[in-house]
Backbone:
């Protein structure tokens, strides 16, 4: 069974009278505990696909099933609920809140879920320690290195125990040594059972994944490696 899949996914943007298709009939499967890299040139549809997988946007047509739920036709409120319960996000620019400490940044998804303050503080501390930041709990983002900030972002993405972890160029702002440390952490999370879909333009980063999906002009041109057939999904 697929943990998530998309079938004949289209996303068309309207620029005045002109229709611009960003995705053209994409069909993909994501197996449990799979690590997938998504590659392609600028304008190939990578970011559009990640936005749809992350329920940040809705497809023009097609089906997206996450877990046991068809999310492709949900309204904004329902998509927001799915994001808070089933998805985790790691961004190139970290997207931390400058005014909050490490532990407070990690708590944010739990706050929106209505978790009690004491419980979310306990959970956030556990995840800070998991990513090696147990001694930085009261630091703010400006007091951290780039690698440490990305570790905070990874911990934040994990506190809701997401079905699918989405990473958008997670090492794009890091030096090579720090990037390797972050990729080692993602490898560890995947070995522990997390399903990861990562957009990257770096072949050495993509090589860590189980499978590399290549997009070109909004279509999948290669998806080497094991997958789940439409019949199995």
Residues:
């Amino acid at each position: 069974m697929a943990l998530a899949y998309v079938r004949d996914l289209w996303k068309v943007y309207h620029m005045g009278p002109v229709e611009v298709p960003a995705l053209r009939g994409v069909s993909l499967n994501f197996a449990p505990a799979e690590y997938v890299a998504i590659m392609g040139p600028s304008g190939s549809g990578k970011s559009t696909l990640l936005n749809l997988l992350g329920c940040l946007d809705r497809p023009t047509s097609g089906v997206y099933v996450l877990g046991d739920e068809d999310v492709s036709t949900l309204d904004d409120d329902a998509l927001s609920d799915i994001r808070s319960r089933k998805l985790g996000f790691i961004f190139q620019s970290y997207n931390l809140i400058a005014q909050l400490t490490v532990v407070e940044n990690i708590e944010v998804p739990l706050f929106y879920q209505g978790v009690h303050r004491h419980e979310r503080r306990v959970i956030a501390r556990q995840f800070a320690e998991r990513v090696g930041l147990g001694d930085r709990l009261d630091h703010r983002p400006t007091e951290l290195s780039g690698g440490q900030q990305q570790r905070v972002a990874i911990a934040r993405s994990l506190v809701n125990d997401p079905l699918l972890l989405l990473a958008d160029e997670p090492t794009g702002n890091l030096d090579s040594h720090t990037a390797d440390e972050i990729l080692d952490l993602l490898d560890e999370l995947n070995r522990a059972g997390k399903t990861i879909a990562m957009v990257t333009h770096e072949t050495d980063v993509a090589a860590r994944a189980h499978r590399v999906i290549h997009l070109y002009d909004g279509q999948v041109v290669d998806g080497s490696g094991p997958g789940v057939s439409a019949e199995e999904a």
Confidence is low (pLDDT under 50) at residues 224-233. The domain at 4-96+163-224 is CATH 3.40.50.300 (Rossmann fold). Strands lie at 4-15, 18-30, 35-39, 61-66, 69-70, 87-91, 164-168, 195-199, 211-216, 219-224. The radius of gyration is 18 Å.
